């Protein structure tokens, strides 16, 4: 198959607001190196982490093509060994960088065949977000049946999936979400209590969490909102509870003195997905678990919108503007 030498891609040359996302139509198609495959993307995922690289909150070399995941077809293999047996024409999903583009050269070790019966949209609707969720509930804190769990941003890309997974584990879920429509969505997933933390009543969400849990607090709080909620999350967990910080949607959690944890003997964690799936067997283990949940229908995906590639700027504005529920996708 002959490949084009240039492609359409979204390039970030300098850090800044969404306006720094520039459409290029003559960006070189990468040549896959040893250990890589070249994928023609059918769908790419948009994640909040993309905005951290764009703003420089997470430093990364520029110019840069954002985008940590995609699904499509392998169109070329890098030279050398092919330990995972990939072929040109395989339908795959990948986790790496460079997804806001028609073609991405990505590590074979972070690429996996998509099983029949799952669409690319289903897979990327739940890939990076869903892998985050299954690792958070197993490794960051192993959720037990009957645990009271507080989950912020429960209507978002990760939150929509996590609410379902927590309920399937038998947890009692208190979700937070901004606005009545999001609250209804989270309730529809079976959350036990949903607090609109933007409303006057919901602003004191810690008090509500205490009321609901008989004054004790939750066993674990999963907090991806960060700056605006980190302190409340510490207050909302019970004695010997756990707080897992895993994102910065409102800004990062500031450095905190460890003695803040002492009075209630609280444990905290600040994991990242890529640390849990670094080894091939870990990546395969969790992707298999995720694909099983998707194929069985136990885990439902919600796509907020599929944006054309050249609307990546608008997509990031919508995500940061808290206007979305579920997952945002890009169609290269
Ligand atoms: N550690 C990891 O490995 C890992 C992996 C994946 C995702 N994450 C994190 O998980 C979170 C969710 O990611 P996502 O891609 O699925 O995004 P998302 O949840 O779809 O979007 C972020 C949500 O955060 C809430 N939010 C609260 N305060 C906000 C503010 N000041 N500005 C913007 N949003 C605010 C909004 O929901 P409401 O309006 O309902 O408040 C918004 O919809 C992010 O923090 C992300 O960094 C971490």
How does this structure look, described?
α3 crosses α4, α3 (128-140) crosses α9 (280-295) and α6 (205-212) runs parallel beside α7 (230-236). The relative contact order is 0.15. The chain is α/β, with parallel strands linked by helices and 332 residues long. The two termini are 19 Å apart. β14 (303-308), α10 and β15 form a beta-alpha-beta unit. 27% of the residues lie in helices and 27% in strands. The longest helix has 16 residues, at 280-295. The protein has two domains: 6-125 and 301-331, Quinone Oxidoreductase, Chain A, domain 1; 129-273, Rossmann fold (3-Layer(aba) Sandwich), CATH 3.40.50. The chain has helices at residues 48-55, 120-124, 128-140, 157-168, 180-188, 205-212, 230-236, 273-276, 280-295, 312-320, and strands spanning 6-12, 21-28, 36-46, 69-77, 91-95, 103-107, 111-113, 148-151, 172-177, 193-196, 218-223, 237-245, 267-269, 303-308, 327-331.
């Amino acid at each position: 198959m002959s490949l084009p030498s240039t492609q359409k891609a979204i390039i970030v040359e300098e850090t800044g607001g969404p306006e720094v996302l520039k459409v290029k139509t003559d960006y070189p198609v990468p040549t896959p190196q040893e250990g890589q495959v070249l994928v023609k993307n059918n769908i790419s995922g948009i994640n909040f982490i993309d905005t951290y690289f764009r703003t420089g909150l997470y430093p990364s070399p520029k110019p840069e093509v954002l985008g940590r995941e995609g699904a499509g077809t392998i169109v070329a293999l890098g030279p050398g060994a092919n330990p995972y047996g990939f072929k040109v024409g395989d339908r795959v999903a990948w986790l790496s960088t460079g997804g806001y583009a028609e073609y991405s050269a990505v590590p074979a070790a972070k690429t996996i065949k998509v099983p029949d019966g799952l669409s690319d949209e289903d897979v990327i609707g739940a890939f990076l977000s869903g892998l985050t969720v299954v690792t958070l509930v197993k490794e960051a804190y192993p959720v037990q049946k009957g645990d009271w769990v507080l989950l912020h941003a429960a209507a978002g890309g990760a939150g929509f999936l996590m609410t379902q997974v927590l309920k399937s584990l038998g947890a009692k879920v208190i979700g937070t979400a901004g606005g009545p429509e999001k609250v209804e969505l989270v309730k529809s997933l079976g959350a036990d209590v949903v607090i609109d933390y933007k409303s006057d009543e919901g602003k004191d969400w810690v008090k509500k969490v205490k009321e609901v849990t008989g004054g004790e607090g939750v066993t674990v709080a999963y907090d991806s909102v960060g700056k605006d909620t980190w302190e409340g999350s510490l207050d909302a967990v019970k004695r010997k509870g756990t707080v897992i910080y895993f994102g910065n949607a409102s800004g990062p959690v500031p450095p905190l003195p460890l003695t803040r944890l002492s009075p209630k003997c609280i444990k905290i964690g600040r994991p990242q997905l890529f640390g849990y799936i670094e080894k091939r067997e870990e990546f395969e283990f969790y992707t298999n678990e995720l694909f099983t949940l998707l194929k069985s229908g136990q885990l439902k995906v919600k796509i907020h919108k599929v944006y054309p590639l050249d609307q990546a700027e608008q997509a990031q504005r919508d995500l940061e503007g808290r206007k979305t529920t579920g997952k945002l996708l890009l169609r290269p």
